[in-house]
Amino acid sequence: MSRSVLVTGGNRGIGLAIARAFADAGDKVAITYRSGEPPAGFLALKCDITDPEQVEQAYKEIEAQHGTVEVLVANAGVTKDQLLMRMTEEDFTSVIDTNLTGTFRVVKRANRGMLRAKKGRVVLISSVVGLLGSAGQANYAASKAALVGFARSLARELGSRNLTFNVVAPGFVDTDMTKALTDEQRQNIVSQVPLGRYAQPEEIAATVRFLASDDASYITGAVIPVDGGLGMGH
Ligand code: NDP
Question: How far apart are CA 43 and CA 65, in angstroms?
Fold first, then answer.
C-alpha cells in the first residue's frame, strides 16, 4: 500500500537515501529543501524547519497532493562545532532550533493528521554522539540526546492512539556533514569503529524503513544504533 511519507532534509545525504528507499518501495514521498534544485522524483517543498510558517505551508501542500502524512522522518540537522569556551550563544541556540525545536515543529504538525487517521510512524534521526558525547560538539550532542527524551515522552503520550516514535542513532556516515572533517580526523574515527569504516547513507535508510514497516508494529520508544559498533554499551 502506498503511504504518504515526509522526509525533512530529504534533498541530500542520509535524508535523500531515506527518501529513495521509501520511493523504491512504492510510497508517495515528499521532501524538504532550502535552496538550489531539489532531486527529481519527489514532491519537493521549500521549507526551513526553523520557520513555523514554512512548516505549515509544506504540510498543507503535502496534504493536498499526497494526503495526510502517515510516516514522518525528522532527519534535517546541522552542526556548528566549537569548544565550549568559544561557543557563542548563537552557535548553541541555532543548532537547538534546527535539531530539536525544528523536530518538535514537524512532529507536532504531523500528529494532527496521524491522530485523526488513528495511525502514524515517526522516526527521528539522532546520532551516536548524543549518547557518547563529543568534544567540540556540546550543542549538537545536547540536541541529539534531547530527541531521545522527546520521542520516549511521545511514545508514552500517544501509544494508545496507535502512533509509534522511534529514534535512529547513526554513527559516522559518508555525507557532506562528515566531508568537512580532515583526513586525520576521519582516520581517527574509523580506528574506533569495530566495523572499521563509515556507513553509507543507504545503511541508515534501511533501518528507518524497517521502523516504518509492519514488521516494526510493536516497537516504540526504541533507540536503534546504526553505528558499526562505535556506541556499544550505551
Ligand atoms: P547533510 O549536512 O548532508 O544534510 C543535512 C540536511 O538537513 C540537508 O538536507 C539540509 O538541507 C537539511 N537541513 C539543515 N537545516 C535545515 C533547516 N533549518 N530546515 C530544513 N532542512 C534543513 O547531513 P547528513 O545527511 O549527514 O545528516 C542527516 C541527519 O543525520 C542529520 O540530522 C545529522 O545530524 C544526522 N547524522 C549524521 C551523521 C553523519 O555522520 N553524517 C551521523 C549521525 C547523525 P539543505 O540542503 O537545505 O541545507
Answer: 8
The CA 129 to ligand 1 mean position distance, Å, reads: 15
- Ligand 1 atom nearest to 35, measured from its CA: 47
Report which secondary-structure segment, H or E, holds 5.
strand 4-7
Cell of 228: 558499526
- Please report which confidence band the pLDDT of residue 77 belongs to, taking 50, 70 and 90 as the band edges: very high
**Whether 169 contacts 226, CB under 8 Å:** yes
User: ipTM of this predicted complex?
Assistant: 0.99
Could you tell me the residue ranges of all domains in the chain? 4-226
Question: pLDDT tens for residues 160-216?
Answer: 999 999 999 999 999 998 888 888 988 988 999 999 999 999 999 999 999 999 999
- Give the Å distance between the CA of 98 and the centre of ligand 1: 10
Distance between CA 140 and CA 128 in Å, rounded?
Answer: 11
User: Cβ(166)–Cβ(224) under 8 Å?
Assistant: yes
Is 140 one of the catalytic residues? yes
Residue with CA at minimum distance from ligand 1 atom 34: 77
Give the amino acid at 29. Answer: V
| Average pLDDT of span 110-135 | 97
Residue (of 131, 147, 98, 159) closest to 226 by Cα position: 131
Measured distance CA(178)–CA(16) in Å, rounded: 16
Domain 4-226 fold is Rossmann fold (3.40.50)
Q: What is the pTM of this model?
A: 0.98
Calculate the dihedral angle through the C-alpha atoms of 47, 52, 58, 59, rounding to the nearest 10 degrees.
Answer: 150
